[in-house]
Amino acid sequence: MEVASLAAASAGGTVVGLPMRGWDHLTPNRWNHELRWSDTYPQRLAHLLAADAVVALDGGIGTLSEAAVVWAALQTEPVPVDLIFLGTGWPPVIESLAAHLVIDEQDLAHVTVCADPAHAIAHIRSRPRSGPAGPGGSGRAHG
Q1: Integer Cα distance of 15 and 5 in angstroms
Q2: Cβ atoms < 10 Å from Cβ of 105
Q3: What total number of domains does the chain contain?
Q4: Residue 9 belongs to a domain with what CATH number?
Q5: Does 117 map to a domain?
Q6: Whole-angstrom distance, CA of residue 31 vs CA of residue 93
């Protein structure tokens, strides 16, 4: 996450880190402008849903789980979060999910897939943001 945080900060973004208490083996990186600590997984997910943009990078089951929760909320809740899957590993995962689960074009329209950070940044900048005082959004990108 340090490289992603550095890239976002270098592009002028405000990086909000979401570390979990009890994960003593992981240290938040120096590129975070703010840290929002979570004691529980639901608290961490609440932070994700309060973001304007959630960018899922290549990761593990935790990354997939968090992205899936955000995606499900986009289907059912009035959340203004923008979900972006960044990297070349995501298209086959999403294609497989669509082929084997009940996912249609309307569901796929809730997410954006970007092969590289430049496209993700351009996409994020092109979307209207609610800003810090807006409903649901924090005006910041979380990662």
Answers
A1: 6
A2: 7
A3: 1
A4: 3.40.50.450
A5: yes
A6: 29
Are 73 and 81 in contact by the 8 Å Cβ rule? The answer is yes
DSSP state of 30: T
Largest separation between any pair of C-alpha atoms in the chain: 41
Please indicate, yes or no, if residue 137 is contained in any of the structural domains. Answer: no
Domain membership flag for residue 83: yes
Q: Rounded to whole angstroms, how far apart are CA atoms 110 and 108?
A: 5
Q: What is the pTM of this model?
A: 0.77
pLDDT tens, N- to C-terminus, the chain (143 residues): 787 788 778 878 788 888 888 878 888 888 888 899 999 989 988 998 888 889 998 888 888 999 999 999 999 888 778 999 999 999 999 999 999 999 999 999 999 999 988 898 889 888 876 544 333 333 334 44
Domain range for residue 69?
2-131
In a domain, residue 123? The reply is: yes
| Percentages of the chain per state (helix, strand, coil), in multiples of 5 | 40, 15, 45
